[in-house]
Every structure is written in structure tokens, then in C-alpha cells.
Design brief:
The chain is α/β, with parallel strands linked by helices. The strands form two sheets. The protein has an eight-stranded mixed beta sheet, sandwiched between helices. The chain has a five-stranded mixed beta sheet with strand order 8-9-7-10-11. It has six helices and 13 strands. It is globular. 29% of the residues lie in helices and 24% in strands. It folds into two domains: 163 residues, 3-Layer(aba) Sandwich (Rossmann fold), CATH 3.40.50; 104 residues, Dihydrodipicolinate Reductase, domain 2 (2-Layer Sandwich). It binds NADP nicotinamide-adenine-dinucleotide phosphate. NADP nicotinamide-adenine-dinucleotide phosphate (NAP) binds next to α1 and α2.
Length: 282
Amino acid sequence: MEGKLASLRIALWGASGRMGEAVLDCLGEQSEMSLVAAVVSEGSTWRGRLLRERFPSAPAEQRFLCARDCPPCDLILDFSGAAGFAEALSTALRFGAALVSGSTGLSRQDEERLEQASARIPVLWAANFSLGLIVLLALAEQAAAWLSDFDVELLDLHHRGKRDAPSGTARALGEAVIRAKESQGCHARAVFQREGARGEGEVGMVSLRGGDAVGEHRLFLLGKGERLELAHQVSDRRVFARGALRAASCLAGRPPGRYRLESMLPSLVGPVELDRVGSRPV
Ligand SMILES: NC(=O)c1ccc[n+]([C@@H]2O[C@H](COP(=O)([O-])OP(=O)(O)OC[C@H]3O[C@@H](n4cnc5c(N)ncnc54)[C@H](OP(=O)(O)O)[C@@H]3O)[C@@H](O)[C@H]2O)c1
């Protein structure tokens, strides 16, 4: 089915979590979307309870439910982390629904499953749904290519409850830097822990965790006698939620394939278009 759906039926995975809450907060802004399921894990303390307990504006009878009780939907929006991702994906395949996922800390097997699924359904995974971060990714790659003899180091700072380190975004930034350096014929490799001296070509990543910090990424390009810093900070999770909902509205109804958030950048100045990458038509 090509084009947008009149009313997009969304099932939200990880609905009881921090991101789930932000998405539920922002869903009211989307008149063309309706929430058909707020999905939690089988053993969740929220399973079976009314959404109204946490969200006074939720429909009277809507309850948190688990994957096997999820009704048919057009799109699954997944923020359940590595714990729920596989189930979100298999449910999307079962319904022929699109999948937008922001879950990080995925295993290699999860990534392979996502790639295979893109032959049957439209999928979009992004480590970070903020527009500022998409710009930072592009800037980081360009800066690392132009300043290819500078050393590059990365820092990510997140709240104490974050399960993965480095963050998915830090990994994506590191990959962009390594790609840029290799394009200039330089050897580069990511280093997640360091003891002792810095090795040649290392792109070091440091993860700080604590308090309620929503998310900060800082890239240091360190040269002789000068340094360039690129930084991005999020203070409100609804930035991610709105980005993910915007991606959802673009993705629904598209042909199967793997889509990239980067191509949403034109939406800052004009209509949104998504590029399809690595798709295998059914
Ligand atoms: N891409 C982005 O822009 C972006 C931004 C922020 C965060 N993230 C990522 O999004 C994920 C969630 O972050 P968060 O801060 O919201 O974490 P969180 O507060 O721990 O929420 C995750 C929720 O998923 C639920 N869950 C666990 N297993 C599940 C399953 N099998 N099915 C359905 N739900 C399940 C858990 O709830 P129950 O125990 O109640 O089931 C938990 O509350 C993380 O991977 C994080 O890194 C991405």
C-alpha cells in the first residue's frame, strides 16, 4: 500500500518506560494517529492496569497489555529496549505492520532480523530521533574528514537507569568518524575502555551515567594547538518522541524496505521524504 493511511493504528512497545511515557504524552498532538495498544512485558507490574492511572487523558477502558494480546495495527513504535525489540519486530511481521524502533543495545542477531524483516515490511531504526543529533552526525563526519589528522574522542552522558554503554548514538557518531577517517586513508578503530596510553588511530568513547540526564553527546577533535568541540544536549524526552512519531507518520504505508532518518532533514525546510536503503522487495 503506497501513501498515507487515513488513521494510523499504532501499537507502542515499552509503553510503561520513560520513552513510552514521552510518546503517550505527545500522541495527543497527532490527530491522524490512534493508539490501539500500549504494550509492556509479560511480567510487568503495569500489565492489565488502566492507562488512566498514569495518563488522565487516555481513553477510559484502555489498558497496558502484553504482546500476545496486541490487536492488529498499522505500525509498531518500539521503545522497549533490547528486551522487547525481537517481540516488537515479530509482531510487526505477523500483522504486516511497519516498524519504527528507537531501541538501543540490540544484538547482532537483532540487527540481522531487522535486515531480513525489511524484505517484508517497512522498517526504520534510529539510535536517536532528535533532529539536532541528525545534524550533528553529518557535521561529525564532515569535520572528521576535513580534520583527518586530528585525534577524535567521544563522550556520552545519560541518566543512571540507562542500560547500554556506550549509547547507540555514541556508536553511530563513532562509526561516522571512522568512516570519514578511512575515506581519507587513515586507520581508525573504536575503543570503549582505555587503560594506559592512547593508541594510534583510536576513537575513544567514554560513557558517564548518573542522575536524570536525558542525553548529551560531545565530540572532541583534538589537533596540535587547537581543538574543535561539537556537542548536543537533550533536556526533554519529548524531542525523541516527536521525532519518532514524525518518522512513523512518514513510514506507514510505504513499500517494504529499510528507511533512514537522515533523509528527514529536508523536513526542516520542506516536505518530508524518506530514502529507502538496502531493501529487498517481496
Ligand atoms: N532512539 C531514540 O531517540 C531514543 C531516545 C531515548 C531512549 N532510547 C532507547 O529506548 C529504549 C527505552 O528507553 P527508556 O529510557 O524508555 O527505558 P525504560 O524506561 O527502561 O523503558 C523500557 C520499557 O520497556 C518495557 N519492556 C521490557 N521488555 C518488554 C517487552 N518484552 N515488551 C514490551 N515492553 C517491554 C519495560 O516495561 P515493563 O517492565 O513494564 O514491561 C520498560 O519500562 C532504550 O533502548 C533507550 O536507549 C532511544
